[in-house]
From TrEMBL:
UniProt keyword terms in alphabetical order: Cytoplasm, Glycosyltransferase, Magnesium, Metal-binding, Nucleotide-binding, Purine salvage, Transferase
Family matches, as InterPro entries: HGPRT, Hxn_phspho_trans, PRTase-like, PRTase_dom
Keyword Phosphoprotein: no
UniProt main location, coarse: cytoplasm
Name the UniProt record assigns to this protein: Hypoxanthine phosphoribosyltransferase
Gene Ontology CC annotation, any one: cytosol
Subcellular compartments: Cytoplasm
Needed cofactors: Mg(2+)
Molecular function in Gene Ontology: guanine phosphoribosyltransferase activity; hypoxanthine phosphoribosyltransferase activity; magnesium ion binding; nucleotide binding
EC number: 2.4.2.8
Record's keyword annotation contains Heme: no
Length: 178
């Protein structure tokens, strides 16, 4: 393996606090409404599960899943976004929030936003835990952002390097193994 677990960038405690903050904002904005939360597999799964538990009874929250892939076994985007599994819900006329672990080049989220917008939801917003702003090549409009992070490849809390390290409870920098 070319990378190993490096220093902690965002601790479990910081993640917990931020998820609560984002959850409270979304809960406030959508109280009394139905929202379809779209988890972008696989990276967003841990953030999604934690965030959705913050919705409480005030929001009529429903789940759906979208599987895409562009990084594969690399730390560089292939530049091609592939839909591996589409939503199973009709989002026409619904409030939709896309939940993502990281916004890097913006390729994945710009592709997903366009795809879902064509299905005419009532509203469409994005909630992203990490934003690697410097790397953006595609503009993406995000309503809810957790942390702005530097241009480092990160792992843990759902984020992988070649399928490894998603289970780590904190976000770490991936460090070259040599
Ligand atoms: O802004 P971008 O440059 O498009 O990068 C962000 C995307 O890349 C990663 O997913 P990946 O395609 O590696 O699949 P995964 O979620 O299964 O890890 C990450 O989870 C985001 O979905
Ligand atoms: O820094 C990252 N780590 C893991 N997956 C990613 N996908 C885009 N950027 C990253
Ligand atoms: Mg992903």
């Amino acid at each position: 393996m070319k990378y190993r677990i490096g220093r902690v960038l965002i601790s479990e405690g910081q993640l917990r606090e931020k998820v609560k903050e984002l959850g409270a904002q979304i809960r406030e904005d959508y109280k009394g409404e139905k929202v379809i939360f779209v988890c972008v597999l696989k990276g967003a799964v841990i953030f999604f599960a934690d965030l959705l538990r913050e919705m409480g009874p005030e929001v009529d929250a429903q789940f759906d899943f979208l599987a895409i892939s562009s990084y594969g076994a690399s730390t560089v985007s292939s530049g091609i976004v592939k839909i591996q599994e589409d939503l199973s819900t009709d989002i026409h006329g619904e409030n939709v929030i896309i939940v993502e672990d990281i916004l890097d080049t913006g390729l994945s989220l710009s592709y997903i936003s366009k795809l879902l917008r064509e299905r005419a939801p009532k509203s469409l917003e994005i909630c992203v835990l990490l934003d690697k702003e410097e790397r953006r090549t595609q503009p993406v409009n995000v309503k809810y952002t957790g942390f702005k992070i530097p241009d480092e490849f990160v792992i843990g809390y759902g984020l992988d390097y070649a399928g490894h390290f998603r289970h780590l409870p904190s976000v770490h920098i991936a460090e070259p193994a040599e």
